[in-house]
C-alpha cells in the first residue's frame, strides 16, 4: 500500500541522485517504494492475464529497472525518479500492444497501446484502419475511452500513401506513427487506499478495446 513515504523517497532521490545515496537507502527503497509497487502489480495481474493470457503473470518481470541507461545521455543521473511497469504479450519490452503504469513522487501515469511501431507493423495497422474505419472511429469516440484518456496520442507522419488519403478525410489519426493513450492523476488521494488497483484497472479497461483492435491488425 502506498503512503507518503513513497513520495518522500523520490523527493529525496531527486535531490541526491547518486549511487552512494541510493545504496545507503536501498533498504528504505525496497520497503517504501519497490515493495508497494510490486504489491500493486500483483493486484493488477490476475485481471490483465484474464484479458490476455499471453501477458506474463510475474510482477517482477513487468517491472522496469530504476537504473537509467546513461551511456549516451548528457544527464548522468543514475536513477529514474519513477517506478514503471509494462504489461504486454511476451514481456514488458514486447512490440505488441500492452498496458503501462508509472508512479513518481506525485503522480500516477496509466496508459497503453503501441509506443514503438516498425514500418511493417505500421503498414498493417493503417491498412486495418482503412478497411475497418467505422470500428476505429467507434473506439476513439467511445465514452469509456474519452472519459479516461481524452484522445489518442502519438507522433504523426507528414506524408501518407496516396491510397490512404481518402481515409484521412474520415480520421486524421491514420497519419499516426504511434497509437497510444496516457492519463495522469495525483498519487496523494490514494495513500493507504484499497481503491488504487480498481482505478488503474478502470483506465486499463478503457484502453483494452484499442489493444484488441491493434492486435487484430498485427495478426
Structure at a glance:
With about 220 residues, this protein is α+β, with helices and mostly antiparallel strands. The protein has helices spanning about 5-15, 20-25, 25-50, 60, 120-130, 135-140, 145-150, 165-170, 195-219; strands at about 80-85, 100-105, 105-115, 180-185. The chain starts with a helix and ends with a helix.
Mind explaining what this structure looks like?
- This protein is an alpha+beta fold.
- Helix content is 47%, strand content 13%.
- It has helices at residues 4-15, 19-24, 26-51, 59-62, 119-131, 133-141, 143-149, 165-168, 196-218, and strands spanning 82-87, 98-104, 107-114, 179-186.
- The protein has a 4-stranded antiparallel sheet, with helices on one face.
- A hairpin with a 2-residue loop joins strand 2 and strand 3 (107-114).
- The termini are far apart.
**In what order do the strands lie side by side in the largest sheet?**
1-2-3-4
First and last CA, distance: 38 Å
Quaternary organisation of the protein chains: single chain
Shape: globular
Outline the low-pLDDT stretches: none
Helices, by number, come to 9
Q: Estimate what percentage of residues fall within beta strands.
A: 5-15%
Largest sheet: 4 strands, antiparallel
Helix content: 40-55%
Radius of gyration: 19 Å
Backbone structural class: alpha+beta
The average pLDDT is 95
Number of strands: 4
Order of helices and strands: HHHHEEEHHHHEH
